[in-house]
């Protein structure tokens, strides 16, 4: 199960520098001019989780395999992108394919790095991008509703549902608000998601600050925090420059560097964790002498569907899941100890998997 987060923002806000650090490569060309990223760069990143190391140590696993999140570095949007300004249409299409948006905002002062609008105002930058996404959605909705007219005359139920949802989104957008604020009933959730409207994507604001402000942020990031809270979105404070430097160091050097900067953990770890939370994801584990592995599922996933993340046959032939809570696995020093202590449970098809569960699936072939 793959999850994609698109890194977006105006030109020269630090997107590609951040992406380079995320993927520990120089795959994305970081340069001080707009549109230096023409094709979206894609990178898979391991989700940091100290629990996986603990489980592997207890089980003496030969291999540790973290769960992963995909980041897509999308070229800088500009005002007018919804009308094709810059390379707007192409970039908007790239955003459509992601599950969420990491919106990088320039919260640093640097006369050597030009800003497309000649000023540093992250809240205004956020509004510019949001407006372009909303305008693109409005244009898309108008076209789609026009194309549904014939089906609606024929009383097509699917078309009626689609038109009703598009009309709700259109009303919200025309009121100057993103479509994500539309309240959608459970029976409409799947159809709503399939509309793939840009302004329904959950947003994580990434405040890119100067090196000296990485620990506490600054006045610019404080304004972003206020905006994010009012919207019900979240934010993280990061210095992309520091993260790029850290990405070139080994683990021990990186730890020392972070300590010197007064930081408890790398900003990228916080970014990945925040993205994980934003998408309402959680982790379960499979553990044995061969490997300790983390698997990503959405919150509220039933045991058979969780098994299906490993292989479709596991879901089809699901019998039961032998389950141990993470804390019990650690306290009992592994699977055998958990069994002896009565902490291993046999869970059926209606079991809602919990974050941290250590699981072994039994299934019919």
């Amino acid at each position: 199960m793959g999850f994609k987060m698109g890194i977006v923002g105006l030109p020269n806000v630090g997107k590609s520098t951040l992406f380079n650090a995320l993927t520990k490569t120089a795959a994305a060309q970081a340069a001080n001019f707009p549109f230096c990223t023409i094709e979206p760069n894609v990178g898979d990143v391991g989700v940091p989780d100290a629990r996986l190391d603990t489980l592997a140590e207890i089980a003496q696993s030969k291999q540790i395999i973290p769960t992963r999140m995909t980041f897509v570095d999308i070229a800088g949007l500009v005002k007018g992108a919804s009308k094709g300004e810059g390379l707007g249409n192409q970039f908007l299409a790239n955003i459509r394919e992601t599950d969420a948006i990491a919106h990088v905002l320039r919260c640093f002062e640097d006369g050597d790095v030009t800003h497309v609008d000649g000023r540093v105002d992250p809240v205004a930058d956020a509004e510019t991008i949001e407006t372009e996404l909303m305008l693109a959605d409005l244009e898309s909705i108008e076209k789609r509703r026009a194309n549904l007219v014939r089906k609606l005359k024929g009383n097509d139920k699917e078309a009626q549902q689609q038109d009703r949802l598009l009309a709700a989104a259109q009303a919200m957008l025309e009121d100057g608000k993103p479509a994500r604020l539309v309240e959608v009933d459970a029976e409409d959730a799947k159809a709503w998601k399939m509309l793939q409207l840009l302004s329904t994507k959950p947003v994580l604001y990434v405040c890119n600050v100067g090196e000296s402000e990485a620990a506490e942020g600054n006045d610019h990031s404080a304004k972003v925090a206020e905006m994010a809270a009012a919207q019900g979105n979240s934010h993280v404070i990061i210095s992309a420059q520091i993260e790029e430097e850290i990405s070139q160091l080994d683990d021990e050097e990186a730890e020392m560097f972070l300590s010197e900067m007064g930081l408890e953990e790398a900003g990228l770890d916080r970014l990945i964790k925040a993205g994980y939370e934003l998408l309402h994801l959680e982790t379960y584990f499979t553990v044995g002498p061969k490997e300790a592995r983390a698997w990503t599922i959405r919150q509220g996933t039933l045991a058979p569907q969780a098994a299906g993340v490993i292989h479709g046959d596991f879901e089809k032939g699901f019998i039961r899941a032998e389950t141990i809570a993470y804390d019990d696995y650690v306290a009992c020093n592994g699977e055998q100890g958990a069994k002896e202590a009565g902490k291993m449970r046999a869970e059926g098809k209606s079991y809602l998997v919990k974050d941290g569960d250590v699981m072994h699936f039994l299934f019919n072939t």
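The CA atoms of residues 205 and 235 lie 4 Å apart. The first strand starts at residue 4 and ends at 8.
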